[in-house]
Amino acid sequence: MEEFTVLLAEDEISLGHIVRESLEERNFKVILCTNGEMALKQYAEKKPDIVVLDIMMPLMDGFTVAKNIRIKDNHTPIIFLTAKSQAKDVVAGFGIGANDYVKKPFSIEELIVRIQVHLSKRGILETKVSSVRKEYKIGEFIFLPHKNIIVRGIIVTQLTSRESDVLNLLCQNQQQVVPKGIMLSTLWGSDSFYNARSLDVFISKLRKLLSADINIQILNVRGIGFKLVF
């Protein structure tokens, strides 16, 4: 898997290290900065794939860092990470050109999912449904994505194209949570309510099809996405 670079600017050193370690565990390269001036300098030198900025930082606040980035760069996603929760601060952040806003205290998983979603929207994060693999072993099943079938013993079950696409995406990331937003944008091109309901229906169908092996589960990780385990 290709390594993507996250510029993380956070002056709370312990929190910064926790977030960095969590991202590195998921194969991200992290540039950790403890003040705004350092963050702006590292942005110019390293050209990260995404920027996560605390607002209240010494030497230069996150708003100022973002303003300077947006002078020359309107494409790199910027996520504000802050304790500020007033509506005017949210509006100000988006007005500067931020792509997202995460309020403290926050779940590390939530931040990671938001990072993944914004990289996916830019076409950076690999989320293609197609795969060079011709088959996956899922417990007692063999899944052949190029033929849209699953096989268990002598029983062959034909999948619809969309069922196959959903299962293929889960198999490509087996044992890992696949964010619901990424699944929707990859397979449907939109995270609308209607498409989200459609995804839930396909997940239910796949669970039923795979239920012959009690060790296989498609877990719903609340508020994040789905995870195939077996």
Topology, please?
Elements: E1 4-9, H1 13-24, E2 28-33, H2 36-46, E3 50-54, H3 62-72, E4 78-82, H4 87-96, E5 100-103, H5 108-121, E6 136-138, E7 141-144, E8 149-152, E9 155-158, H6 161-172, E10 177-179, H7 180-187, H8 193-210, E11 217-221, E12 225-229
Parallel strand pairs: 1-2, 1-3, 3-4, 4-5
Antiparallel strand pairs: 6-7, 7-8, 8-9, 10-12, 11-12
Helix pairs in contact: 2-3, 5-7, 6-8
Largest sheet: 5 strands, parallel
Order of helices and strands: EHEHEHEHEHEEEEHEHHEE
Q: What are the segments in which pLDDT stays under 50 over at least 5 consecutive residues?
A: 128-132
Order of strands across the main sheet: 2-1-3-4-5
Tally of separate domains: 2
SSE class: alpha/beta
Return the average pLDDT rounded to an integer: 86
By DSSP, the count of extended strands is: 12
CATH superfamily of the largest domain: Response regulator
Instruction: Just give the CATH class of the largest domain.
Output: Alpha Beta
CATH architecture of the largest domain: 3-Layer(aba) Sandwich
CATH fold descriptor of the largest domain = Rossmann fold
**Beta-strand proportion:** 15-25%
